[in-house]
Predict the structure.
Amino acid sequence: MVLRYGARLGKYVVAVLVLLTALGTRARAQDSGIEVGSKAPGAAVETLDGHAADLSSVLGSGPVLIQFWATWCPTCKAMEPAMLAAQQKYAGKVKFVGVAVSVNQSPRAVQAFVEKHSPKMTHFFDRRGKAVDAYEVPATGFVVVVNKAGIVVYTGLGAQQDLDAAIKKAM
């Protein structure tokens, strides 16, 4: 009797391990976030001065790099040199968009940060998390690159992203 239940339990353990391995393989193919190859969605956001806006306003007329960030994010701070270098290299060729998440910050705090550090991006505030949901953002420091047709060609998370290679996929 114990052996029969043990064998059954063993089958369940194997099935769970196979499932976890399959999920892990999929996650490594694309770590997280909106699926590469999908149409980039619009999402209701706000300008930093509180006016209603939509991410669709920056899509479809050329390549776009969207960074989901926060003033308190160490990953975002670590990405600043690479982001600034990409902005300089692709000025006039790629739109750079910052979407500030609403966790532990306000539009006023974001605006003060932007004015002090003057990142050369179009900035939005995601007060209700609509953009975070639409792009399936796993954490701050998440980057999405969209080509001129509005298709997601890259997603990445973390401070060590090759933004140059990501942008080249959209050109």
User: Anything to note?
Assistant: Residues 1-30 form one domain. Residues 11 and 126 are 46 Å apart (CA to CA).
